[in-house]
């Protein structure tokens, strides 16, 4: 999905909501465990109940890898089930030397058909570039993450710039706003205005609203640009809103509440 | 495998060689493509031909993920085929917020039974700690990598310390030399002496000898400590030494040449 199509979807749905399918088999409603593929069954109902309210689904690969082959199958089936007009993110946080990053890109862009993948910047340009080289695909590079550990290295100052700012500045020269986004945690909403000085045009993928404590209002106020330019991810608050047979309805209620707020901020 | 057992293996085999199974189906000898599982068949013969000369195999997960389900199966079969007394590394470069890192740890330590996994440090303590919490397992954190892109962020100076030095210093307080190693590229051999000032006791996993240009002599001279303390990884130079039916013998010749040099440096 290209940038124009993504923006059109956001405007049409009045939503910049990304729903994180961090589906943990130990947390899904008990009645699903009898199904042949409980994780896929869970995701299927979540997608059925929410796809008109969000513009993106983010699949957190860790939860699928933890189940081995059957998890990998559930991930593929889930990806295939997501409607065509929704932007798909492999939240995989990959990154390695060039020839290896190319293999990761093949895994997520060719073997599976994700629109985008999250990538860690630590190994530098030749670890990020192979993802950017895939036409029609997106690379979403970690800049400032939503967790406590973001204070360990991401804010270290060098040449009067914090590491995440240097990451934004350097990495933004490796791609364009048409194929590159950045991860900026919602728990750092007050820094979004500064971040917008460095990357005014790129889309930002913003995790951390909900369970992690970030404010949707704040990130919308400080993060948006003239093309909207943000995708706000919410995972646990939506997918685990209920824990019984009505979990999909509960998820829809949560998603709708967020979408209505977003419509208001747009 | 614990530290003492690893050191004992190194001394017994007079080798600190780790062989990287970066098995690319497009690069293996053509006659194997008729096999049911060409990648596993390739790995099996490499393991048969080299297991007495190395103390570790490193499986680069990207090459397996690029093949989807069948790749994941080939990875599991390869891991199961590696002899008990050899240290296994999932070269996966994972790392995410705490609850997600726990899932990655489950994937590689429980769902599969790797001894260790490589982890990217960018997201800080709560992204690394979940791996360290698995008893009897090892976490191998990227410090200074072997690629060109290592100059983009890893050497940025802050508080008179380069980022990779801060990573070494901070991360070394999160684990112990019994459950934590660091990745230091062989292409930076001259910096190994400085690195040894910061982490005198930890094992270092050293990629970059061979195809990437690092010198075995240099890394051995500057990297070893009194417990030897290094694992030197070689991938392509060994596994693609031949490209015909005799590829396993060619791989053995390469591995033996490296092991003989190592015996000399020990």
Q: Share of helix among residues of chain A?
A: 40-55%
- C-alpha-based Rg of chain A, rounded: 18 Å
CATH superfamily heading of chain A: Aldolase class I
CATH class of chain A: Alpha Beta
Unreliable stretches covering 5 or more consecutive residues of chain A:
none
The chain pair with the largest interface is: A-B, 60 and 60 residues
Spatial arrangement of strands, main beta sheet of chain A: 1-2-3-4-5-8-9-10
User: Into how many domains do the coordinates of chain A divide?
Assistant: 1
CATH topology descriptor of chain A:
TIM Barrel
- Distance from N terminus to C terminus of chain A (CA atoms, Å) equals 21 Å
Instruction: State the total count of DSSP E strands of chain A.
Output: 10
* Secondary-structure element series of chain A: HEHEHHEHEHEHEEHEHEHEHH
Summary, kept brief:
2 copies of one chain form a homodimer. With 266 residues, chain A is α/β, with parallel strands linked by helices.
Architecture overview:
Two copies of one chain form a homodimer. The first copy, chain A, is 43% helix and 18% strand. The first copy, chain A, is α/β, with parallel strands linked by helices and 266 residues long. Chain A has one domain: TIM Barrel (Alpha-Beta Barrel), CATH 3.20.20.70. In chain A, the strands form two sheets. Chain A has an eight-stranded parallel beta barrel with strand order 1-2-3-4-5-8-9-10, surrounded by five helices. In chain A, α2 crosses α12 and α10 runs parallel beside α12. Chains A and B meet through α3, α4, β3, α5 and α6 of A and α3, α4, β3, α5 and α6 of B.
């Amino acid at each position: 999905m290209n940038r124009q199509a993504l923006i059109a979807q956001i405007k049409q749905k009045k939503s910049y909501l990304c729903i994180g399918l961090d589906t943990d088999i130990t947390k899904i409603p008990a009645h699903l465990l009898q199904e042949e593929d409980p994780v896929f069954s869970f995701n299927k109902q979540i997608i059925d109940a929410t796809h008109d309210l969000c513009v993106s689904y983010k699949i957190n690969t860790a939860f699928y890898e933890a189940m081995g082959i059957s998890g990998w199958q559930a991930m593929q089936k889930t990806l295939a089930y997501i409607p065509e007009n929704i932007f798909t993110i492999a939240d995989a946080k990959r990154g390695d030397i060039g020839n290896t990053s190319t293999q990761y890109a093949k895994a997520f862009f060719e073997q599976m058909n994700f629109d985008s993948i999250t990538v860690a910047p630590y190994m530098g340009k030749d670890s990020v570039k192979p993802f950017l080289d895939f036409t029609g695909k997106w690379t979403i590079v970690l800049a400032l993450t939503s967790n406590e550990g973001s204070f360990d290295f991401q804010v270290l100052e060098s040449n009067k710039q914090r590491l995440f700012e240097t990451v934004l500045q350097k990495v933004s020269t490796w791609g364009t706003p048409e194929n590159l986004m950045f991860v900026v945690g919602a728990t750092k909403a007050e820094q979004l205005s500064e971040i917008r000085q460095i990357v005014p045009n790129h889309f930002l993928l913003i995790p951390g609203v909900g369970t992690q404590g970030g404010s949707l209002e704040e990130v919308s106020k400080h993060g948006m640009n003239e093309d909207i330019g943000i995708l706000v991810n919410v995972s646990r608050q939506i997918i685990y809103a209920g824990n019984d047979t009505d979990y999909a309805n509960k998820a829809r209620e949560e998603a709708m509440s967020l979408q209505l707020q977003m419509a208001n901020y747009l």
